[in-house]
Every structure is written in C-alpha cells, then in structure tokens.
Design a protein that fits this description.
- By secondary structure, the chain is an alpha+beta fold.
- The chain is 34% helix and 21% strand.
- It has a 6-stranded mixed sheet with strand order 7-6-1-3-2-8, covered by helices on one side. A two-stranded antiparallel sheet has the order 4-5.
- Strand 6, helix 5 and strand 7 form a beta-alpha-beta unit.
- Helix 2 packs parallel to helix 7.
- 34% of the residues are buried.
Length: 193
C-alpha cells in the first residue's frame, strides 16, 4: 500500500516508513501552510478530528456543535524530522494558551489539540507541554488538548492546499502569511529547499 491509498481512511495507517501525527492549531489553512514547508513532511491533509458525527461538512463544523477540531494529518519521515521538531514548530506558530480561539477564529473547532496515535507520541507531547508550562515560555498556561486519536475526516477538496492556491485572498494575506513568515524567520533551517 502506498501513502496515497492510506490517506482517505479514518484508521491509523503508517506506510512507507512515514509516521502520522494529527494537530489542531486553529484554522487548518494556517496550520497546513506551515507544516507543508517543513523538510521531512511528506503530506499534509486538512480535515476534522475528535468529533461525534461521521463525515462532517465544513458547514457543520462551523456550528461548533459537532465536537470536531479543524486539524491536519501530518505524514512525516522521522529520519528527516523528529516529532520533537514538529512540536517545536507547532507550539511556536499558534497561541496554545487560548481556549477555543486563535485570533479572530473562535469556537471549539479552533482549539489547540494534539491527537496522538501511539503512547510514544503522547509521552513526547505531554513532556513538551509540561516543560513549556514549567519554564513559563508563555505568559499564560498552555491549554492544548492532548488526547488519543479516534477519527479523522478529510475536509472538502477546496480546503486542501488552500494557502498555496489562494495566497492572494485577504484572509491568506492577513492571517496565514504572517504565520508562514514567522516559520521562515525562526525555523529557516527546517524548511524544504
């Protein structure tokens, strides 16, 4: 089975030496744009995770009543980028201290979340969170949810690769682009060539 065949499934699949982590950091357009640019990240799929209804639509998610978070599935090569490095980028490119909000985007669908796929991922994410809280890197405590992966539903096609295809739209210019620029400034050595 190749990576493309594994993508639409809601079960955990790790193929061709790639690992999978599911991350929520507000709007998935922003999160996708950041993680697509990292060396060692093979594929990023925007979608919905952690909710109570199967195959939700964007319209349903926007109500904030389905329990889903806007997330990305990140397929990465651990020989090229570690989970620790991915989490460094995760913590630095959104505000993990605001509950159910990222900037102007508010609601539980925009919560900060790490959906782990195995106990090792849980341990690493929990350790990172504790260390950051302990060293008071942020002014307020981190509220990021760290929970077991239960489901993932790919978002509609028009949400995929959104920033790369719609970079001139106002939301992309004013919200997504600053996150990408921050990534370049602080993590330039981790970017794809």
């Amino acid at each position: 089975m190749n990576l493309e065949q594994a993508l639409p499934k809601t079960t955990i699949e790790i193929t061709d030496g790639f690992e999978l982590i599911t991350l929520g950091a507000g709007c998935f357009w922003c999160t996708e744009a950041v993680f697509q640019r990292l060396e060692g990240v093979e594929k990023v799929i925007s979608g919905y995770a952690g909710g109570i209804i199967p195959n939700p639509t964007y319209k349903q998610i926007c109500t904030g009543t389905t329990g889903h978070a806007e997330v990305i599935n990140v397929y990465f090569d651990p020989k090229k980028i570690s989970l620790e490095n991915l989490l460094e980028v995760f913590w630095a490119t959104h505000d993990p201290t605001t509950l159910n909000r990222q900037g102007g985007d508010a609601g539980p669908q925009y919560r900060s979340a790490i959906f782990y796929h195995n106990e090792t991922q849980k341990e690493i994410a929990s350790k990172h969170k504790a260390e950051l809280n302990g060293s008071k890197v942020f002014d307020n405590p981190i509220v990021t949810e760290i929970t077991a992966f239960t489901n993932f539903y790919p978002a509609e096609n028009y949400h995929q690769d959104y920033f790369n295809l719609n970079g001139m739209q106002p939301y992309c210019q004013f919200v997504v682009r600053p996150k990408v620029e921050k990534l370049k400034k602080y993590f330039g050595e981790k970017l794809k060539k």
